[in-house]
Amino acid sequence: MSGAPEPVFSEPWHAQVFALTVHLNDAGHLSWPEWAQRFGATLKRHGLAKDLDGGDDYFNAWLETLEALLAERDLARADQVAELRAAWEAAYLATPHGAPVHLAEERGGGQG
Fold first, then answer.
1. Could you tell me the CA-to-CA distances from 67 to 44, 71, 90 in Å, in that order?
2. In this structure, is residue 38 part of a structural domain?
3. For the chain, what is the domain count?
4. Are 81 and 67 in contact (CB under 8 A)?
5. pTM score, whole prediction
């Protein structure tokens, strides 16, 4: 076995928000030094000075930072983010324990 170990995420959404951030970097929408500064400021604001293990507190701060960046760069409107967050919450609450969570198809609008 060679090379660095693959990152391990405790929740699928942790991996997804991480991958989205990597994609935004690859697409030139943010630089890693800028991301580190913004994310560090979010962690500090939340008082997350303890050792972080990549759990929900860490990724909630990551998501907050990403949402702010998307809004500032006009890559996603705040109302779109709020609507999508509400749709995921409704889907989560309606999903039986242990089953995969899926968004309802009737969200409308499609992409773009």
1. 17, 6, 20
2. yes
3. 1
4. yes
5. 0.70
